[in-house]
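re: ur question from earlier - yeah i can do the single chain one, its not a big deal. heres the input i used so u can compare w yours
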Amino acid sequence: MWVFVYGTLRSGESNHHVIQEDIVELEPGKVAGVLHDAGHFPYLVTGDSGCGYVTGDWLRIENDTALVKLDSLEGFKEAGYEFNHYDRVVLKDVNSGRTGWVYIAGPRIRTEIYSVISSGDWKVR
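and the output i got, formated as tokens:
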């Protein structure tokens, strides 16, 4: 399965070690959305209004244990759960067409209080 990461889980970032041993393949990518800076981590917001592009990495992982680790780190319990920190949804890469899981801002996150990262790239903020 493929997972798109755009913040602290990217290679060279502070939480990459959480998933590093589970990565089978890594490819650069880009999805539609807006990136917000919450200080120590970003939030991706999807939608049509003011939508730009978010740069990140597609990680291919081959076991459910890795997804459980990511769900725990990202505060995701289950789809539709109102207290998810992040929601896990399927998105499509704007260039390659690859699809996979992406963690986006959960329902209780008020992104308007966080500044937008205009580059769409956590590493270039």
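The CA atoms of residues 1 and 64 lie 9 Å apart. not sure if urs matches, ping me
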